[in-house]
Amino acid sequence: MRFGIRSIILLVILVLMPVLTWLWVLRPQNSRIEQARKDIAQKRELLAKLQQETARNNDLQKANESIRSAVFAIEERLPNEKEIDSVVRQITDLAVSAGLQSPAMKSNKPMQAALYKEQPLEIAMEGDFSGFFTFLVNLERLPRITRIPDLKLRTQEKENAELKAEFTLSIYFQDEERQAQAQ
Amino acid sequence: MSEPTNAAPGGAFPGATVAGGPGGGMPRATLKSSFLPADYVARKSEQRATMLGLGLFGLVMLGVVGAFLVTNRAWTSVREERLAVDKLYAEEAGKIEQLKELEQQRAQMMEKAEVTAALIENVPRSVLLGELVLRLPEDVKLTNMDLKGTRIETRVQAPPPGAAPMQVKSLADTKSKAAETKPKIQAPRFQHTLLMQGVASNNNDIADYVASLRACPLLQGVELNYIREATIQDRSLRQFEIQAEIRQDADGRALAAGLTQRLQESTEKAIADATSNITLRASGKGDPASNAAPASTHAAQPAPQDSGDNR
User: Which one of A61, A64, B79, B233 is separated from A165 by 20 to 30 angstroms, measured CA to CA?
Assistant: First the structure.
């Protein structure tokens, strides 16, 4: 078999074809693939971290819900207004039903208590210890939030009134203006 | 006839060679190629070469195209993978936004919850009174009790570095910056001081009461201010004053559950004691002096007259 020009050209073409394809097509493509794979690996690594971070979302959402419901439960016990009239009625009823004398009351100036308003009431009542204790227990069971920051108990020599109690009862109510500001 | 030796006898094809064999006779002929005409053979040879060339070309092309297809397929799969990762990335970016919002929401809610929860007294006064009364020794009686609450004014301080909870933040997060600059609403806080005065028949009972109050989980800083001699209804007694503070971290509600039962038991015991005293007195066997002593758990004894300091 003789090798002519044609055969040589063919041979050259046959050799050049894969070489040029490798140089101009496959190598750049492979390098792009390699680069893309590196990017993907990097992104996956970052993604894993993000997923780890965002996995808390559900827990956080649940925690927020539980906090919101707890706050709501407390705020439900805070009326929109002072409702002094109903407080006076309730306290008198509680005192009388606990065997105490009808209490004397004095309303002080309302003050700001963070997001809410506080209305202090100075109350004085007489009776026996068990009656006063029952009164306190029932007062704490009232649906609205109350607080007794000051309390004075004095024993005395009176029939049917062995004890005199003087205390400040703070009642709380919503301050919508302040809440709107806070939000 | 003299013909060239390379011509096959009987009209052999040109180019055919005949080799003489040993012993003469018909020489063993070796044909140069075949009996086919030379131009035919040449054409055939050329055709074969062409076919071989084409075959090789096809093979190379197949290899090249195959390699291209394989690479292309790899690229397509990588591109799809990258798209999928980008999609996941976008989803996670959305979740990160959500996380930021949730954390901001949580911070606000915690602040509000702290403020709101501070409204509820951690030590219900009934529980406090119950504890004070139930811990009274038999011969000790309280005459006065003062509970004074002082509002604690807390100043807003910048949190120390690293104290803030980890939050996802971006540089362009203007919302959280605005939230940071907003002054924090402080929960109302109180400090409660308790001052108790009472009487007892002897100092040991007072010491027992102080020790018992020190063990009370609601109180701290329990101190005995004084013990004085006092005369009540012509009877010499020991008057005392105890000071204490209510713990800020006390959980009075946890104690409330057992308190009712303890109070009931105490009341039953007091009733039983009173009944037995009455029975003894009726039969004339009781000691009248012991009946005058403060035995009840209730703070119902009249205030005694002071007769000097006896710390």
Answer: B233
